[in-house]
Amino acid sequence: MRGPDVIRFARDAASGNPLRTALSLLAMAIGVAAVVVLTALGDGARRYVVAQFSTLGSNLVIVLPGRSATGGFSPANAVTRTPRDLTIDDAAALLRSPHVARVAPLTAGSSEINVGGKLREVIVAGTTASYLQVRNFHMAQGSFLPEGEWTRSTPVAVIGGSVYRELFGSGTAVGEYVRLGGRRVRVIGVLAATGTGMGMNTDELVLVPVALAQQMFDSNTLFRVLVQAQSRNAIESAKRHAAETIKARHGGEEDVTVITQDAVLATFDRLLGALTAGVAGIAAISLAVAGILVMNVMLVAVAQRTGEIGLLKALGARAATIRQAFLVEAALLSLAGAALGYLLGQTGAWLIRALYPAFPAYAPAWAVIAALATSLGTGLLFGWMPAQRAAAMDPVQALMKH
Amino acid sequence: MPLIELSAIERTFLLGDSTVHALARIDLSIAQGEYVAILGPSGSGKSTMLNLLGLLDRPNAGVYRLEGRDVTTLSPDEQAQVRSQRIGFVFQSFHLVPRLTAAENIALPMMLAGIPAAERARRVGKALREFGLENRSDHRPDQLSGGQRQRVAIARATVMQPALLLADEPTGNLDRSTGDDVIALLETLNANGVTLIVVTHDVTVGARAHRQLRMEDGRLIGDERRDRADHRRVTSADLRK
Ligand SMILES: Nc1ncnc2c1ncn2[C@@H]1O[C@H](COP(=O)(O)OP(=O)(O)O)[C@@H](O)[C@H]1O
Ligand SMILES: [Mg+2]
Prior knowledge:
The structure holds 2 protein chains of 2 kinds.
Chain A: H1 3-15, H2 18-54, E1 60-65, H3 88-94, E2 100-115, E3 118-127, H4 131-134, E4 139-142, E5 156-159, H5 161-168, E6 177-180, E7 183-191, E8 196-197, E9 200-201, E10 205-209, H6 210-217, E11 224-229, H7 235-249, E12 256-260, H8 261-304, H9 306-314, H10 319-355, H11 365-391, H12 395-400
Parallel strand pairs in A: 3-10, 5-7
Antiparallel strand pairs in A: 1-11, 1-12, 2-3, 2-6, 2-11, 4-7, 5-10, 6-7, 8-9
Chain B: E1 4-15, E2 18-30, E3 35-39, H1 46-53, E4 61-66, E5 69-70, H2 76-86, E6 87-90, H3 102-112, H4 117-130, H5 146-158, E7 164-168, H6 176-191, E8 195-199, H7 203-207, E9 211-216, E10 219-225, H8 228-240
Parallel strand pairs in B: 3-8, 3-9, 6-7, 7-8
Antiparallel strand pairs in B: 1-2, 1-4, 4-5, 9-10
């Protein structure tokens, strides 16, 4: 039997029983659609988180006080006790590496800001001018912290978007004086809105020179040092150099943790990737169920068409030809179901994206290919037994069942 | 060389504890171009004989030579090949595929044999014309009369130009006059050279054959040949009874 004839024969046989065909098609379609939609959700979550982390800035190396046990990043061991302070001088020393483009020390605490009787709690971050580029921020009004002032506690502040709106409405802020933790500071700039990043909503932030923040919180230690490597390729060297520099400055003690944004990203990537794969696996179970349904449908078809099988044998069909015809029929059911499910799933993912534009719900290509391959695979796997049963029939017995 | 040569053919079935001898030590020789009727009461082994001749069934013992070749030892695929090329079947219940049109049903053996579509269409067109089915080609079996269905089945059985045409009660589901037409059609095919073996329990139909094989309890109990004149005489004698 020729290839196109086998396919046409199988197609006609399948469409000869529309209800049965439609049911198994639907089962397969639901399975594939489930995989597509669920992986779109899982991978969407992964992309969302990765995108959020990317707003942190590019080629970032982060130095935090405290030695992490494994050297890898984990939220738990990132907050170990600090044996020795991470100081502004430590941060400045990092600038000497040829792999480093910028360094921004960061210290943080909460304080009250007060202007014209309006009072609110804010996070005060002490840093330097390079923080703007390191975090890839933009100014809405005025200018950022003055260049080169690492040790001077000039009483100036840059405020985040929401702080500006709450305190000044839409009036001028630049040049105004506010009270920040009991000190009089002059607002020199307003940050453009950025949204969240690294758990800190920068729109709620007030940025001051690092020396001023240390005075306010009466502390010499830094919360973080953000290091921007020269390039993506320089990240690892910058990381190593930073670790060695601090170690040398801290009397040979490895008491800081140096992480790269890549490592953080990779961790989340892995976590959410595993989640997506797990969800895909669960959805794939419905594909197996659909496969079993296809088998059932094919078994019924073989039983119903016993007389026809006997006839085909009488007309000279070999066992292999009959097996092939039924296998192709099972494969067609699976493939058509998979194609329908693919369309359904992509429509579902599109709907999610339309409803939640911030959420990039795209099914990853591997999941789509795996779902289509699995459906075809299960169709063939579960189609084999019925096809084999048809091929092995005794022609005389089969012809009598008419 | 005879077309068919059976020697000491046995076919037994196990029915519970007892063994049924559907065919018991059959020796038979049929020449190319013969027109043979197999007659006998129900359960005498006629269908079993025909299935065996058509390589749908295997004997428990004995040798079957078809065109001089021992076909009992062939593999199932080789037997399928012989069925495809050398044997055509006509069944009592027509055995048309309900979802296929008359033309597609006729083309089925050629499709299974892998004959290209163009050649199939050519031969189907010819068959439709020869069997008077031109304006029925797109009809499905349920849109055809019994006689038309059996004509489609005969066209299908002969479209591969077999040497042997086997018909098991071909008129069993037809009324008398339609049955006569079908027999006449089969006889025309026989006149054109195909060896025709018809199983029937209808004496009138059987009497038209050139040779009658009578079966009882799986044994061949009669083998009569007549020339055409005899055959006419016997038929009219039967009718007078
Ligand atoms: N598959 C089978 N299993 C058991 N017995 C069978 C089978 N096929 C035929 N027989 C028996 O063999 C005998 C001959 O049957 P069959 O050839 O169909 O007779 P006929 O066609 O002359 O009516 C009968 O007794 C029948 O019951
Ligand atoms: Mg019978």
